[in-house]
Amino acid sequence: MSFAGATRGPLRIAPLFKARSWGGSELRALAHPDAVVPAAPIGEAWLLCDLAQSDGADRTLIAEGSHSGKSLHDLIADPSTRGDLLGRAPPSPGNTFPLMLKLLDARENLSVQVHPRRWATRDAADPKDEAWLILDSSPGARIYRGFKPGTTSAQVVERARSGALVELLEAHEVTVGDAVFLESGTCHALGAGLLVAEIQTPSDTTYRVWDWGRRDTTRPLHLDDALAAMRLPADSHCEPIRRVELHDAVPAGLVRVDPVSSCPAFDGEVWTLGADAEATMTCRGVPRVVTVVAGAASASGLSSVVRFGGTFVQWADGDAVRITTERGARLLVAQPGDSVAGADSSVGRRIS
Questions:
Q1: pLDDT at 200 > cutoff 90
Q2: Contact 340, 88 (CB under 8 A)
Q3: Could you tell me the residue ranges of all domains in the chain?
Q4: What is the pLDDT of residue 55?
Q5: Which of 199, 198, 142 is nearest to 169 (CA)?
Q6: Tens digit of each residue's pLDDT (9 = 90 or more) over 176-197
Q7: Looking at domain 11-242, what is its CATH homologous superfamily?
Q8: Quick one: pLDDT at residue 56?
Q9: How many angstroms from the chain centroid is the CA of residue 113?
Q10: What is the largest CA-CA distance in the chain?
Q11: How many whole angstroms separate alpha carbon 276 and alpha carbon 292?
Q12: Residue 342: what pLDDT?
């Protein structure tokens, strides 16, 4: 599939930064000196995005690699690179890259919200499944996800319209290493005091149900759309919160792989590399998106060390990537759902 002499090494991605009223200051340090960064609090760093609804304004660019200056969308549109990049993974609607990766810095509560689901949207909005990995948390920090037992659909409608829907949601205290899956249509909110990595399908459609009393005309509520898209109590069962050990040490020279989340749309896992460890990331027939979430690592084909928030893409059919670290690192590795390889295929795997 590759042309003779063509380089299919890793593609380092330059993030985009989004101002949010609930954001903080932690993500500002990720920005390159030449990057455009809003002066307002930064709530989200879009580490990789290719959104059809943005008309190109919200597409991250390749900062280093054989196609520097282009977007992944450009590679998908080009027949000479599309197959090598995507492999077995189909593009998302709009011919876009099938994953989106973010970091979220929640200084305040995010709105109580819902994303459209595949079979219950009233418009052409793209569905959005997502998974959170908690990277840092304040004492007592919590998330809200799904409805409490015994909640009725009538109560959901009444409380949504009165602004008290959060009273019906399950609240969970979370801490570093908790992994939370949010199926499209699940009513949820991210609480204050959390730094989160997010894997999601490529959509930026959010229906706000309640915004904690904020009076911000730029953040309207969308009650009717939210209620139409929402998974109501009868079908709102949520997967248990998974635990990924982000504090425990791995012996020098070893790599451990632990699952974060798995659904038909994507799989995510954490690779924990001990000091002086080395691992080879071979191609698996679908692209991988790799983000450093702790420590620092070097990747063959990239000119400099990848540190916190640094993100690169491995082609589905390209060069193997050799990853090394001196003092240890943790990598969040995400890939589109793959019916051939299956889900959670590397649970507990140790690489010497």
A1: yes
A2: yes
A3: 11-242, 250-351
A4: 74
A5: 142
A6: 999 999 999 999 999 999 999 9
A7: Jelly Rolls (2.60.120.10)
A8: 77
A9: 17
A10: 63
A11: 16
A12: 61
Residue type, 53: Q
Three-state SS sequence of 297-329: EEECCCCCCECCCCEEEECCCCCCEEEEECCCE
pLDDT of residue 191: 98
- 11-242 and 250-351 share one fold: yes
Q: How confident is the model at residue 328 (pLDDT cuts 50, 70, 90)?
A: very high
Three-state SS string across 216-249, please? Answer: CCCCCCCHHHHHHHCCCHHHCCCCCCEECCCCCC
Report the 10 Å Cβ neighbour count for 64: 17
b (16+ CB within 10 A) / e for 131-169: bbbbbebeeebbbbbbbeeebeeebbeebbeebebbebb
For 250-280, the pLDDT digits (tens) are: 999 999 999 999 999 999 999 999 999 999 9
306 contact partners, CB below 8 Å, separation of at least 6: 12, 292, 296, 297, 298, 299, 312
| Rounded distance between C-alpha atoms, residue 297 and residue 312, angstroms | 12
Q: What was the pLDDT predicted at 4?
A: 37
Whether 351 has a pLDDT exceeding 60, the answer reads no
Q: What percent of the residues of the chain are helix, what percent strand, and what percent coil, each to the nearest 5?
A: 15, 35, 50
Residue 151 predicted with pLDDT over 80: yes
Phi, psi of 322, rounded to the nearest 5 degrees: -90, 125
If you average pLDDT over every residue of the chain, what do you get? 91
* Vertex 140 angle, CA 135 and 145, to 5°: 75
pTM to 2 decimal places: 0.93
Q: Count CB atoms within 10 A of the CB of residue 223.
A: 17
Residue 241, Cβ density class (10 Å: 0-12 exposed, 13-18 middle, ≥19 buried) = middle
Tell me whether strands 288-295 and 194-200 are parallel, antiparallel or unpaired: unpaired
Closest-CA residue to 178 (of 258, 290, 109, 264) = 258
For residues 84 and 318, is the Cβ–Cβ distance under 8 A? yes
What three-state secondary structure class fits 280? strand
CATH domain 250-351 topology: Jelly Rolls (2.60.120)
List Cβ neighbours of 5 (8 Å cut-off, separation of 6 or more): none
